[in-house]
Amino acid sequence: MIPLETISVFFAISVMMAMAPGPDNLFVLTQSAIHGRRTGFLVLLGLCTGLMGHTAMVAFGVAAIFQQSELAFNLLKAVGALYLCWLAWQAFTAQPADMSAQTESQRSAKALFLRGVVMNLTNPKVAIFFLAFLPQFAKPENGSLAIQILMLGALVIVATLLVFSAIAWGAGKIGDYMKRSVAAQTVLNRIAGTVFGALAIKLALADR
Prior knowledge:
Shape: globular
Number of strands: 0
Order of helices and strands: HHHHHHHHHH
Radius of gyration: 18 Å
Strand content: under 5%
Number of domains: 1
């Protein structure tokens, strides 16, 4: 069993990491601001599901492939960068009229959830980060390393849910006011497109 002191330190670090600007929280922020809190929360659930996948890959040794194989790393990186480019194109070409016509209730919960999953799982840097971060807090004397990794991953997910939920709520609140203006909607779309484009470039240039 992982000592309570280790759990406390690990959770505090996880919260601070969730608060630091990064691809995932920027993704939740822009989606919430443009499409509303419901969209942000559904995307967040998808991102956390992706974190479950990364945790499992570390626990069972799969994540090491992306650290050891340049081909696997670059292939996953390319998929992630292309996906972000597609999101950027959607944001830049979206019209305010399209946004008003498509309310939150009309959006597919499944599609929004999968958007978060794909965004997270196609970033090999997350897999490698988990591979470097989680094992530092898992010790053989505390029992099964795989179970410890899964427990630590669950703590990261809880921290992410807490911080990102606040981001989604706050950004959604601001977006509610901005949606009343066609010009503000256009600005939000341009900002989102720029963020996605920048994230795509950053991911495309990432090294192992």
